[in-house]
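**Polypeptide and fold**
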Amino acid sequence: MSKTSPPSAAANGDKPAIIPVILSGGTGSRLWPVSRSSFPKQFWPLLTDHTLLQETALRGALVAGDSPVVVCNAEHRFIIAEQLREVGIAHPRIVLEPVGRNSAPAIAAAAFLVAERDPTAVMWVMAADAAITGGSALAEALRVAEDAARNGRIATFGISPTKAETGYGYIERGTELGSVAGAFDVASFVEKPSLEKARELVASDRYLWNSGMFIMRADTVLSELRRYEPELYQAVEAAVRNRAIDADFERLEDVSFRGAPAISIDYAVAERTRLAAVVPGHFQWSDIGSWDALWELSPKDGEGNATYGNVFLDRTRNCYVRSDGIVATVAGVEDLIVVVTSDAVMVSHRDRAQDVKHMVTRLTEAGHREAISHNRMYRPWGFYEGLIQGDRFQVKRIVVEAGQKLSLQKHFHRAEHWVVVAGTALVTRDDEQVLVRENESIYLPLGTVHRLENPGRIPLTLIEVQSGPYLGEDDIVRIEDDYARS
């Protein structure tokens, strides 16, 4: 899918450009096992060489009048910063939520921050994990929505439906605004419907898919939040006022933010305000809410199959097959989704793609780590991945980027043996520092205060062998950490 290319509003000299606000709080459980809470779908390149977050940021940069505001959880902050850096997004304002409270508190926090500089600034609020194509159609819809926003409206894009979709909400279009041609009052919002109801809505020309994107002035949405959700308004205002600066991140104050009700912006404002407006969008949009949706968006072979990775098909039709490593072979089937990762396999009929989230719930309830965490776990210094796990031991591969280092730490239940296979490690072991080179190793007895650092210019790769009665990741006592982790 190609990137969207709306013309920059900054080129229009008579008004300021738009400020992108990107919400990156979802887990994308319907795209399990690729998307998990430890590394959700917005961080994956599902349609192009760029991740969904990067596509969203680049789309916003074309109309940006200032750095984008990205609202996310603290666990993902370094992933987001690195992915934005890779595509040249300079100086993003990355705002860290101490806890997820749904979209209304997140948008309120962004609006308070934007209003500190310019209360009348127009924000384009969008999820980090949607796919959009249709540059000229998006540009026209954005122009209309911006005009509506500058006239005090809270505008959203309504997407012309192409089928009876039960995974989306719908917006009923009312009368056209007298002040802004091409924008309409909202007659009603419709929750995700049954298939029969969705068919009725699509048959009417009054109903549009609810994209979940909003274009509005910061002061407008804050005024409506204060009117309809005063408790939320006060809690988020305090969390923003008392925020802490942590390197390149802005941490919302914990206690105040936790006091905000967990509510979506739709329920908090959009479905209650008299200022709601909808702009019909004739561009292609998808929230990629299921593997079937990704199949629809992906290029296909002559038999209707979409594939990714090391995949071989035989007498197979209309399937989505993905492998992120080992070879996956599929033969003699139709309308299936097959997804293979290093630690999980998911097979589903395309018609039941929305049900994947129920399987994730069951896996979580059964205590399976694979429901929420990948075998490869990203950290601000690099990543680690499990190779072998047995009784009282496990083996990991650890990669530390150049110039980075782990926390100074110790363990109560395990000893560690490190073997360097590429690069050079500087190891702190109690009161000494040891340089460990390629093909050399070092032993860290239980209780040893230690730290791993990469002083070189290439990634450091080592094999770690842990041994002990308990090998959980929570057996880490951090004494000193450059990344402000507890």
Notes: The first helix runs from residue 52 to 61. The CA atoms of residues 190 and 315 lie 41 Å apart. The longest strand covers residues 320-331.
